[in-house]
Predict the structure.
Amino acid sequence: MAALYALFAFVAGCVLPVQAGVNARLAEWVGGPVRAALVSFVVGLLALFALVLLFYRTRSTGSLGEAPWWLWMGGLLGAVYVVAAAVTAPRLGAATLVVLVVAGQAVMGLVVDHFGWVGFPEEPVSAGRIAGVVLLGVGVGLVRFT
């Protein structure tokens, strides 16, 4: 089962540079990256709505009113990524954009794991994990400047 999750994560990573390019081009058609992000989210909303209708038999959304405030931030964080990618993709190129996004994810992943934020188990920063992030930084330099 872990292999299927890993494959799903890999596929999700594969679509990010394509999504960035699509949204960057969409921005040209609709008059800016924020409008492109809006169109992207509306299409995503419709797709997710269809999936909910197809695969979820109960109509309950749980007790959303009792959820911590920060659980509502996912959509906002997604919007930041979509707009940032649409703005930067044409200027950086797909490979540089992706390695910078991955480097940012790795750095924040260390912080989130270290403090056990947003429901992740605490996993202290180690020399090996820091070395991995530093190597990603080296990779960013190699992709961008060679």
